[in-house]
Amino acid sequence: MAWLESLDPVRVRNPLALVRWNFDKSYLLQLREAGFNVPETKLVDPKDHNAIRAIMRQHGWHRAVRKPLSGQSGHFVDVLDLAKYDQWPASIMPTEKAVLQPFQSDVARFGETLIYFFRGEFAYAVQRLPNPGEGPDRVAVLISDEVINQASKILAFVDQVPLYARVDGVIRENRFMLMELELIEPSFAFEAAPDKAADFVHAIEEELRQLSED
């Protein structure tokens, strides 16, 4: 964040204020409170296993995911099994607070759907597969207009339209559950949708064209 703050704002195409907001996963609480379909989310001390166990018992969560308040690529993320409390690993995550959510079992089986937007407009969708083995870990998929509309409303919640965005979640019977909103250099999975790389270039060109006109 200090490095981003040192740059000329014109070099950061997703607004810096938006990046700063997205850097802290407590934004999930804001989105849930705003009425979006987000898993129950708690902020916890990652080292306080007694408090985490109490929350899991209170909400009836047999398994929960503990992730750092700021992080990427699954680093420092743990799945905690209530029945195996004595085996929980000590947290070594670098953030003082952590996000705690109920474990979504279908994510482990089917993966997540990644929905991409360029300049606020839907661009394409990719399925991120769990444990792909020898095959691809991301494949292009078609999603319904209803799911696109739900993801668009989530993105419209932010103060400024980003140049690019990835809305990650789970689709259940045409209802989208948000897992994370990625506004800081997400993987674009162009290996699964190579023709979309040119669309992203055009979005950047249009953004810069409007900037020069302003």
What topology does this entry show?
Blueprint: H1 2-6, H2 16-22, H3 27-33, E1 42-44, H4 49-59, E2 63-68, E3 78-81, E4 98-102, H5 105-110, E5 112-118, E6 121-128, E7 138-141, H6 145-156, E8 164-172, E9 175-182, H7 196-213
Antiparallel strand pairs: 1-4, 2-3, 2-4, 5-6, 5-8, 6-7, 8-9
Features:
single chain, alpha+beta, 5-stranded antiparallel beta sheet, 4-stranded antiparallel beta sheet, 7 helices
What's a concise summary of this model?
The protein contains seven helices and nine strands, in the order αααβαβββαβββαββα. By secondary structure, the chain is α+β, with helices and mostly antiparallel strands.
Describe the fold and architecture:
With 214 residues, the chain is α+β, with helices and mostly antiparallel strands. 31% of the residues lie in helices and 25% in strands. It contains 7 helices and 9 strands. The chain has a 5-stranded antiparallel sheet with strand order 7-6-5-8-9. A 4-stranded antiparallel sheet has the order 1-4-2-3, covered by helices on one side. A hairpin with a 2-residue loop joins strand 5 (112-118) and strand 6 (121-128). The longest helix is centred in the last third of the chain and has 18 residues, at 196-213. The model has no long low-confidence stretch (mean pLDDT 93).
